[in-house]
Amino acid sequence: MIHAFIFDMDGVLVDSNPTHKIALQQFCEKHGYKLTEQELREKIYGRTNRDWLSNLFQNLSEETIKQYAEEKEALFRELYHDIKPLNGLIDFLRKMDGYKIPRAIATSAPRANVDFTLSRTGIGPSFTTILDDSFVTRGKPDPEIYLKSVQALKMRASDCVVFEDSLSGVKAGKAAGCKVVGLTTTHSREELSEADLSIDNFVNLDPNSLLNSLF
After folding, report:
1. Domain 17-79 belongs to what architecture?
2. Percent share of the chain, pLDDT over 70
3. How far apart, in whole angstroms, are the C-alpha atoms of residue 7 and residue 83?
4. How many angstroms separate the Cα of 156 from the Cα of each of 123, 161, 168, 205?
5. What CA–CA distance (Å, rounded) separates 118 from 127?
6. Does position 36 have pLDDT exceeding 90, yes or no?
7. CA distance between the termini of the chain
8. Taking 80 as the threshold, does the pLDDT of residue 43 lie above it?
9. pLDDT band at 54, cuts 50/70/90?
């Protein structure tokens, strides 16, 4: 039986959320909002810029949403210097190659951030199927991006494993009908209780053993 892996990007392929947090706080304070840790974790992480900007700022025009999103993401890329793959990821990807496991990236981030992350970490060649925020009209926790990823991989959702760090992403993966592995980079194991399995990173993780534990 063939299975496929679908990876969120921020907090999964790279531990970028601490930098996103700084960028979000600086951006929001500049525009008159001071967000609490709980608001960041529950209302922003894992969601598209369109979703959280529309919720935070009322009645924004399409042009302003695009302008604000570009401003925030440019700030993130300016701040994010120490970018590296999550611990154990490179070895995990090599093992996936050995098992010939299909894979995709499904992220709420814009393509500029995807290109930035993949080029800086050198993991771009590991992924040929990439869906960013431009592929969806409904952000996580809606399952749209995972359903489209499953379709792009020509798989069944029930044969796919989603790797997620956000609560909205876990909900999206489960709603799509996939198995979900939660990464504890952003939330605790207790908070990720809806996931089928939780891990801290990819160190010493064997893809085949992981699949045997999930299916």
Report:
1. Orthogonal Bundle (1.10)
2. 99
3. 17
4. 25, 11, 21, 24
5. 9
6. no
7. 10
8. no
9. confident
Q: 3-state secondary structure string, the chain?
A: CCCEEEECCECCCECCHHHHHHHHHHHHHHCCCCCCHHHHHHHHCCCCHHHHHHHHCCCCCHHHHHHHHHHHHHHHHHHCCCCCECCCHHHHHHHHHHHCCCEEEECCCCHHHHHHHHHHHCCHHHCCCEECHHHCCCCCCCCHHHHHHHHHCCCCHHHEEEEECCHHHHHHHHHHCCEEEEECCCCCCCCCCCCCEEECCCCCCCHHHHHHHHC
User: Which fold is adopted by the domain 4-15+83-214?
Assistant: Rossmann fold (3.40.50)
Give the residue numbers marked as catalytic: 8, 10
Q: Work out the pLDDT band at 41, boundaries 50, 70, 90.
A: confident
Judge whether residue 98 has pLDDT over 90: yes
Measured CA to CA, the distance from residue 171 to residue 194 in angstroms comes to: 7
**For the whole model, what pTM was predicted?**
0.86
Q: Structure tokens of 43?
A: 């209302």
| CATH 1.10.150 in the chain, residue ranges | 17-79
